[in-house]
TrEMBL record:
Its EC number is 1.1.3.21. InterPro entries: DAO_C, DAO_C_sf, FAD-dep_OxRdtase, FAD/NAD-bd_sf, G3P_DH_FAD-dep. Belongs to the FAD-dependent glycerol-3-phosphate dehydrogenase family. The lineage of its organism: Bacteria, Bacillati, Bacillota, Bacilli, Lactobacillales. GO terms for molecular function: glycerol-3-phosphate dehydrogenase (quinone) activity; glycerol-3-phosphate oxidase activity. Residues 466-587 form the Alpha-glycerophosphate oxidase C-terminal domain. It comes from the Bacteria. It catalyses: sn-glycerol 3-phosphate + O2 = dihydroxyacetone phosphate + H2O2. This is Alpha-glycerophosphate oxidase. Keywords: FAD, Flavoprotein, Glycerol metabolism, Oxidoreductase.
Length: 610
């Protein structure tokens, strides 16, 4: 089934004339997860996203599927257990996307560090148990100072005590979104990007029964009627709630901004993902992650009140990250001019409650006595010298230290919030990419209940723990074998092994469909066969409407392939203009937007000022 511009228009017409069971506002990872489960469960489902799918927040993460090991510093065992269990589920339903990539965590003898060697080992052992990590390739282990430096010779040597290695997973955030969206469409859902909710439709009881939406591409408005409307708009959930002018709005979201910077791997040769304290005694840690032939590092965590659509990287963001990375890797000497790409994203954090961001500071500090008690009881539990009840008793009696504060951005909860408001709108906010399926599952339980009780529409929710996304329909216990098989199919079609492997990694079980375009479509002049196939597939089967959609969210060209980006801009533009029959003026407009996005990613304005 195609999923293209032509289908987009059909979906708008169907949503305008049919009665939906569910309308979803927001096409990031949360909305995509709800859409997949609703469509697979038989609900007549529609989704509108005012930008491209994943454009707002879900393509701007640290691009990891975290296990949340930092929560074990404050022994928030429940949060870590939930997170690692969900990570395992995501691996099952999207096996071509999360990939195991063990993380190195160096330990320094410095004020304010997250772990010492003993507490790190206790945390990693508990983490492995919670995550059910039994494969000897991925179980945790400690490293001496010398072993850490043998792996990471560019790390700062002073005060280094050693380190630990534990299992974490790299992620392709935007790909995870589009694969959920595609599966929802395949199951009958109407998925429309660049359509914005501009008002609600009410019945005589002032209950929401639909949405007035604007087609951003044409400026035309249309009405969508739905028995249930759910708001999954990420940072914009309060904006959507505010469309109801009849009641006072109490904000749910306190967005914070996270920034990442990309340099060539030769400038920062990091052989494996590394997670290290900043050295600023600010309770934070940063990542340095190898990807393609680049290394990216981040993230910041600051309150944000600007334009949600265009969070930008400031000089303060760059100065902070460069000071940390150059301190931890003193021979790197990275400057602004070395930055090849960047991105800034917003975390849609719940404004109330505790918890902490994985990338931010802990939300509470516990007393030294409580910390020692917890370390000892967890150590005993892992040795089977203490019971779970004894562990729970100690955890319940943990005391916070004086002067604790939760006002810092890093202290805001990463939990999710599900609420049905007085006007009938269901809002699902907050959360993390790792938890998206579980959040959607909770929302689906409420949606199914409402449809049964209020509309006599009865559905059984799909088992979303085993329902694969598009591209994920192969044995999750044999990922390497499956990807090798798809790679060989590409080689058999005449692609180089590298290009065939690239397509297999990107598309998983959809790779044969991608390769079939060799027989049915003309390749794009100026592009390699792999890039031609990728572009053609993106337009026909992934509702890719602009060059930015393709180069930034359907692929990682703009972020991690900067060396070859300039060479493919014109062929991509020409190929899309030919496919969509753009006028010369429309083509010029698309090029201007792309150049602006690249300039922002390149930090061109900051470089010009320096």
């Amino acid at each position: 089934m195609e999923f293209s511009m032509a289908q987009r228009q059909q979906y708008i017409e169907k949503m305008s004339t049919e009665q939906l069971d569910l309308l979803i506002i927001g096409g990031g990872i949360t909305g995509a997860g709800v859409a997949l489960q609703a469509s697979a469960s038989g609900l007549k489902t529609g989704l509108i996203e005012m930008q491209d799918f994943a454009e707002g927040t879900s393509s701007r993460s640290t691009k990891l599927v975290h296990g949340g090991i930092r929560y074990l510093k404050t022994f928030d065992v429940g949060v870590v257990a939930d997170t690692v269990q969900e990570r395992a589920v995501v691996q099952q339903i999207a096996p071509h996307i999360p990939k195991p990539d063990p993380m190195l965590l160096p330990v320094y003898d410095e004020p304010g560090v997250t772990f010492d060697m003993f507490s790190l080992k206790v945390a990693m052992d508990l983490y492995d148990r919670l995550a059910d990590v039994t494969d000897s390739r991925y179980t945790n282990y400690l490293l001496t100072k010398e072993e850490v430096l043998e792996r990471q010779p560019f790390l700062r040597k002073e005060n280094l005590l050693g380190g630990g290695v534990y299992l974490d997973f790299r992620n392709n955030d935007a790909r995870l979104v589009i694969e959920n969206i595609k599966q929802a469409a395949e199951d009958g859902g109407y998925m429309v990007s660049r359509a914005k909710a501009v008002g609600f439709i009410y019945d005589d009881s002032k209950q929401i029964v639909g949405v007035t939406a604007e087609d951003v591409l044409t400026g035309k408005t249309f009405d969508i009627r739905a028995r249930v409307v759910i708001n999954t708009a990420g940072p914009w959930v309060d904006d959507v709630r505010a469309l109801d002018k009849t009641h006072e709005l109490v904000p749910q979201i306190r967005p914070t901004k996270g920034v990442h910077l990309v340099v060539d791997r030769s400038k920062l040769p990091v052989p494996q993902p590394t997670y290290v304290d900043t050295g600023k005694n600010d309770g934070r840690m940063i990542f340095a992650i190898p990807r393609e032939n680049k290394t990216y590092f981040g993230t910041t965590d600051t309150d944000y009140t600007g334009d949600y659509k265009h969070p930008t990287v400031t000089k303060e963001d760059v100065d902070y990250l460069l000071s940390v990375i150059n301190y931890r890797f003193p021979d790197a000497d990275i400057t602004l001019s070395d930055i090849e790409a960047s991105w800034a994203g917003l975390r849609p954090l719940i404004a109330s409650g505790g918890g902490s961001d994985y990338n931010g500071g802990q939300s509470v500090h516990i007393t030294d006595e409580s910390f020692d008690a917890v370390v000892n009881i967890v150590g005993s539990y892992l040795k089977k010298d203490a019971s779970r009840t004894e562990v729970e008793t100690v955890l319940k009696n943990v005391k916070q230290s004086a002067g604790d504060s939760t006002s810092a951005p890093s202290s805001i909860s990463r939990g999710s919030h599900l609420e049905r408001e007085a006007d009938g709108l269901v809002t699902l906010s907050g959360g993390k990419i790792t938890d998206y399926r579980k959040m959607a599952e909770g929302a689906m339980a409420l949606i199914v209940k409402l449809l049964a009780e209020e509309h006599d529409r009865r559905f059984t929710a799909v088992d979303s723990k085993t329902y694969a996304v598009s591209g994920g329909k192969f044995d999750a216990s044999a990922v390497s074998e499956a990807l090798l098989s798809y790679t060989q199919q590409g080689v058999d079609k005449g692609l180089s092994e590298a290009d065939a492997a690239y397509l297999a990694e990107l598309y998983g079980s959809n790779t044969p469909k991608v390769l079939s375009l060799l027989e049915t479509a003309d390749m794009v002049p100026g592009l390699s066969i792999a890039d031609s196939l990728s572009l053609l597939y993106a337009m026909r089967y992934e509702m890719t409407l602009t060059p930015v959609d393709f180069l930034l969210r359907r692929t990682n060209h703009l972020l991690f392939m900067r060396d070859t980006l300039d060479d493919i801009i014109q062929p991509v533009l020409d190929g899309m203009a030919n496919y969509y029959q753009w006028s010369p003026e429309e083509k010029d407009e698309q090029l201007a937007v792309l150049k602006q996005v690249i300039a922002e990613s390149d930090l061109a304005s900051l470089k010009a000022q320096s």
